Amino acid sequence: MRVFQVDTAWSDDNLRIGERPEPTAGPGEVRLKMLASALNYRDLLVPRRGYGSRMKTLPLIVLSDGVGRIDQVGRGVDAYRIGDRVCPLFFSSWPAGDPSADHLSHSLGCEIDGTMAEYMVVPASMLASVPAHLEDAEAATLPTAAVTAWRAIVTEGRVKPGDTVLVQGTGGVALFALQFAKMLGATVICTSSSDEKLKRARALGADDTINYLSTPEWGRVARDMAGGVGVDHVVEVGGQGTLPQSLRAVRPGGTISMIGVLAGSVMDAPLGLVVTRHVRLQGITVGSGEDFVAMARAIARSGMRPVVDRVFEFAQLPEAMHHLASGRHFGKICIRH
Ligand SMILES: NC(=O)c1ccc[n+]([C@@H]2O[C@H](COP(=O)([O-])OP(=O)(O)OC[C@H]3O[C@@H](n4cnc5c(N)ncnc54)[C@H](OP(=O)(O)O)[C@@H]3O)[C@@H](O)[C@H]2O)c1
């Protein structure tokens, strides 16, 4: 079968189409005929061994997001049938509950092979069904960015109707967070480097917007937008470069979900504000199978659709990665198998 893998050495140049034997489902496993995959920021780092020694030895099939249709069911699997459309979970050993070292130890397209393959064999315990109304490309976006946003907004964030949530940028995680926060009846402030993207964020439900390039001191502006007291929740994807502004935007007792480090990974912020404002800094690393199931139920009931920026063909993965690296996208970039 055809796969896209980092083959002989860790570098962008070694990300190539390759051949692997077609796998067969064993006891407790199912086989998926893959339909679509989706990209995440981390997929840009994987070919350079950006996650260090915990990464699998080569060759490594890339990408952590994907959806497939079950075409083989192994002995002892009762929960799924041939024809079901399912996503493999981002973490293969985090079915439910709080994070632990074991739960966080194996993720697709990093420590174990990912979704850019014609077929995947997956333990039935590592799967979740997808909402029926979603197109394949939309469903492929759910395991990483959507579950991360769900855990930030719902599981850990406990956002309530009437809260104000600030989301940074218009990438995958931020737009899912915007959509989940609106689903819960919150007010959303969205930042972006582009006025055009902010217009689209408003169409998606953002109540207020700030261009973080033309307004570098956006933290105070966001606080004023939230009645002068500050926002209840910040979905932080910038890290070092954005946390100082997030600490100005958040209300006393509010939460900052620490998700990404697009603007640097070293702590360089007025930590006194964390103390004196009782701010909760909550680290998030995707989420569990239980998070996926709760999220998929909410998406099915609400009819929400993930924002897909563009769909590329399987062989166009390098072009799709260039598009992601350019930052021109709004929402998710997908691959049709
Ligand atoms: N912890 C986790 O579980 C987890 C899960 C998924 C992703 N992440 C991390 O979260 C970050 C975002 O991931 P993603 O997949 O959503 O990426 P993405 O789709 O590539 O989105 C990136 C967007 O972030 C915005 N951005 C970039 N620099 C910014 C800055 N300095 N301030 C504010 N916004 C900025 C830009 O939006 P505009 O173009 O609108 O300016 C950009 O388009 C990455 O660091 C990723 O590794 C973490």
UniProtKB/TrEMBL annotation:
Superkingdom of the source species: Bacteria
InterPro entries for this protein: ADH-like_C (IPR013149), ADH-like_N (IPR013154), ER (IPR020843), GroES-like_sf (IPR011032), NAD(P)-bd_dom_sf (IPR036291), Zinc_ADH-like (IPR052711)
Sequence ranges assigned to domain Enoyl reductase (ER) in this UniProt record: 11-335
Cross-referenced Gene3D superfamilies: Medium-chain alcohol dehydrogenases, catalytic domain (3.90.180.10), NAD(P)-binding Rossmann-like Domain (3.40.50.720)
Record-given protein name: Zinc-binding dehydrogenase
Species this chain originates from: Aromatoleum diolicum
